[in-house]
């Protein structure tokens, strides 16, 4: 008994140490200094010079609090005229629910926002000036520029996470037939507002951001209009800023946006849609490799989870929790990041299947499995573009062929904290170790999480019909 007590005390001390380290890391990553931004509804549009706050890792969704104001606000009286002439400089960045406005950023002169793997991160790091347009003025701006982008064809990429979507986006953007933006944050900002609103109606104890409630309430018609308007404004920026003015624009979004797929269908009935996914166990292992970097560290954390000593998911933003916090997963939740990663995969797959059943002609024009992309990158890209009605042959352009060749050997997330094996931009992709960190416990747990969605997704090996794989 003494030996067991000593063991439990040691495990407790270990757990306390690991949790303390995680808490410290979470604080350092998320600490913010109260910025002098207005916290009430704004009636006029304005610009303001800013300086980005220095953060190596950005976990919360983008907001005005990412910047330190450098000068006073400059009112913009004719914002429709302003955007018509300078909209190529400003891209949609965020929504300030308290100000009831859409926030745009202008980067430092000479910046190419496509150079960074993530559009949202490039916006934040390179911002020199913001433009804030109240909801009440937004429609006038959209109406002024809409004729110039009426011809644009939008494509939306939905995905499970850790499935090659960043590589796909960068590859599309390297072609001559389409351009792409990887994870503009605006989709998740709207998605999380809708998810909170829906769950607050289902559960009176669910906390709804009062700023969101006062701005848009629970009127999803307003959210559909907001989605349509911000994408029109993003289209205008991307088409006018692109030297080739490519008018097929692909937006890859985070996994949470699947939960508002019904609103995306209403907002963009003529858009085309892609679903990119991966085997559930491979997806889980990719998350675990990214977080823990060492099999020894993960083995320790796994032991803590199994003993019930790790019921916390540090450094995980709200959008990462949106699937796991769904009531259907409550019985299987242990509060760990491992559980939430499983719930993201199972929840994303289940939601994609739901959307297919609701609108089979719309969801999806192409289903792509990670294995096909990993096995034949150029072939998969060519077939995907063909399914979207786009003809692309890199052999016809030697410069484009060489560009694509270099891109396919690079780690598409190199230089970001989402790359498990590289640190510097441009580093080559390397194969992960063939030895798996996962075992029977993870597979059994994943199977239970999958079964919580019903019988539609029986396990981590599920494949959608008509998938390129």
Automatic annotation (TrEMBL):
List, alphabetically, the Pfam families matched: Sulfotransfer_3 (PF13469)
Q: Keyword rRNA-binding on this protein?
A: no
Residues that span the membrane, as ranges: 9-29
- Keywords in UniProt for this one? Membrane, Transmembrane, Transmembrane helix
Can the keyword Metal-binding be found in this entry's annotation?
no
InterPro entries linked to this entry: P-loop_NTPase
Coiled-coil stretches: none
Query: What protein name applies here?
Result: Hypp357 protein
């Amino acid at each position: 008994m003494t030996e067991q007590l000593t063991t439990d005390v040691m495990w407790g001390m270990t757990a306390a140490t690991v949790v303390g380290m995680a808490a410290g890391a979470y604080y350092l990553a998320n600490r913010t200094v109260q910025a002098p931004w207005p916290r009430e509804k704004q009636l006029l549009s304005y610009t303001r010079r800013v300086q980005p706050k220095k953060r190596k890792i950005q976990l919360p969704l983008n907001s005005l609090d990412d910047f330190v104001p450098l000068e006073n606000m400059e009112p913009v009286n004719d914002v429709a005229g302003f955007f018509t002439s300078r909209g190529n400089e400003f891209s949609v960045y965020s929504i300030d629910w308290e100000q009831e406005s859409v926030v745009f950023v202008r980067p430092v002169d000479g910046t190419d926002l496509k150079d960074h793997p993530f559009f949202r991160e490039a916006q934040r790091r390179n911002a020199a000036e913001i433009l804030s347009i109240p909801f009440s003025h937004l429609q006038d701006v959209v109406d002024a520029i809409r004729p110039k982008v009426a011809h644009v064809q939008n494509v939306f990429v939905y995905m499970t996470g850790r499935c090659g979507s960043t590589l796909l986006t960068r590859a599309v953007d390297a072609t001559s037939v389409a351009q792409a933006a990887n994870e503009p944050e605006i989709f998740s900002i709207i998605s999380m507002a809708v998810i909170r609103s829906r769950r607050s109606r289902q559960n009176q104890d669910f906390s709804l951001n009062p700023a969101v409630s006062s701005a848009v309430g629970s009127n999803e018609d307003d959210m559909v209009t907001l989605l349509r308007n911000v994408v029109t404004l993003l289209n205008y920026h991307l088409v006018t800023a692109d030297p080739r003015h490519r008018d097929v624009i692909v937006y890859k979004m985070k996994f949470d946006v699947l939960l508002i797929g019904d609103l995306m269908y209403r907002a963009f009935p003529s858009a085309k849609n892609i679903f990119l996914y991966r085997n559930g166990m491979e997806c889980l292992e990719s998350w675990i490799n990214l977080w823990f970097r060492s099999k020894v560290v993960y083995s320790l954390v796994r032991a803590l989870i199994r003993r019930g000593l790790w019921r916390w998911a540090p450094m995980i933003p709200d959008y990462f929790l949106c699937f796991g916090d769904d009531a259907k997963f409550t019985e299987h939740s242990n509060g760990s990041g491992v559980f939430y990663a499983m719930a993201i995969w199972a929840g994303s797959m289940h939601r994609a299947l739901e959307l297919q059943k609701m609108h089979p002609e719309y969801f999806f024009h192409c289903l792509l499995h990670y294995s096909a992309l990993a096995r034949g990158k150029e072939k998969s890209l060519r077939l995907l573009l063909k399914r979207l009605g786009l003809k692309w042959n890199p052999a016809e352009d030697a410069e484009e062929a060489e560009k694509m060749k270099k891109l396919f050997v690079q780690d598409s997330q190199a230089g970001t904290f989402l790359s498990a094996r590289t640190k510097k931009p441009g580093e080559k992709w390397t194969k992960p170790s063939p030895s798996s960190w996962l075992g029977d416990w993870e597979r059994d747990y994943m199977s239970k999480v999958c079964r919580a969605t019903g019988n539609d997704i029986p396990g981590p090996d599920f494949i959608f019909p008509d998938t390129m794989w």
